[in-house]
Specification:
Layout (H helix, E strand, L loop, with lengths): L2 H8 L13 E2 L5 H22 L3 H22 L17 H25 L4 H27 L11 H22 L8 H30 L3 H11 L4 H22 L4 H24 L2 E2 L5 H6 L1
Antiparallel strand pairs: 1-2
């Protein structure tokens, strides 16, 4: 038996893989799904920010991150990849279906937009509709995964409106960070006023992400017993160090201090972008890892047995 599994069983109230009533970690979504979520939201955020400031390299990279990275890691998670297309058939019931439709609009119309910009293949009259449809698809992609998680009522940490909000904030923060990094190479002309706007937005988004993380912890601490177990895992147990030092410290506090105290330059924008992306990816992994299923019986019933 793995040491981590043994720890989970010995932790008070956790029953591991036994048939007893108690706390269990969710195992439905694992690392490939976490990375798929990260790629989807990062790519969509980069695409949205790049479209708003007319930064074509960022538009193309955003499409690739989502279209290739997210798709690859989704397929590695699925047991029968050739049947994955069926997930798109129920948009009336599932945020997964709505998200897949959003990806089709995002990647499809985003690619058409790029073809129109590079090669003039799209008539001018159609460029604005293509722009709007691709942006609408990107907005769906950046939030639908959070909505899908918030529908998981058995996992109290996820069952909150903060999930889609944190998805959007993190995606846009990753997008602004990548844009500032890419534009630091000075290989593509961008209006200086737009870059100032992106830099200011980056600082605002870091603070907004910090507030979202604090709100998520506060809600978990004062939520159901399963949510309280998740809070303990993220703040005092074996997930505390990577969450507090990695997600909060490296992912938000270090970038914020660097942007506020140091002059903007290539080294600063590179370190900030690396910290933000590392913190975001770690957040996705740890939120999946800390997902605890509420027990059928109350803790008092469990210990009486």
């Amino acid at each position: 038996m793995a040491i981590s599994s043994l720890k989970n069983i010995l932790r008070p109230g956790f029953v591991g893989h036994t048939f007893k009533s108690g706390y269990r970690f969710q195992r439905y979504w694992d690392k490939p799904m976490a990375i798929a979520f990260f790629c989807g939201e990062t790519g969509a955020g980069l695409f949205i920010v790049s479209m708003l400031i007319d930064f074509l390299p960022g538009v193309i990279l955003g499409l690739l991150i989502t279209g290739v990275g997210k798709t690859f890691f989704h397929l590695t998670h699925m047991g029968v990849p050739q049947k994955s297309w069926r997930a798109i058939l129920r948009p009336d019931r599932s945020w997964i279906s709505r998200g897949l439709i959003g990806i089709v609009f995002f990647v499809g119309f985003g690619t058409i937009h790029v073809a129109g910009e590079l090669f003039g293949l799209v008539p001018d009259a159609l460029m604005m509709p293509v722009y709007i449809l691709s942006m609408a698809g990107a907005m769906v992609v950046i939030v639908y995964q959070g909505f899908a998680m918030s529908h998981s009522t058995a996992i109290a940490l996820w069952s909150t409106g903060l999930m889609p909000v944190s998805s959007m904030l993190y995606g846009l923060l990753a997008g602004t960070s990548l844009v500032t990094f890419l534009t630091s190479f000075n290989m593509y002309e961008i209006d200086a006023d737009r870059l100032v706007m992106v830099s200011a937005l980056q600082i605002i988004l870091i603070v907004a992400v910090q507030l979202a993380l604090l709100s998520l912890l506060h809600g978990a601490k004062n939520g159901s017993k399963g949510a309280q177990q998740s809070y303990q895992l993220l703040t005092r147990d074996f997930l505390a160090r990577p969450f507090l030092y990695g997600v909060v410290g490296v992912g938000t506090i270090v970038p914020l201090l660097m942007l506020l105290l140091l002059p903007t330059g290539f080294i600063v924008t590179t370190i900030v972008a690396a910290c933000v992306l590392a913190g975001f990816c770690l957040f996705r992994l740890l939120v999946f890892r800390a997902g605890v299923l509420d027990p059928i019986l109350s803790p008092a019933d469990i210990f009486r047995r």
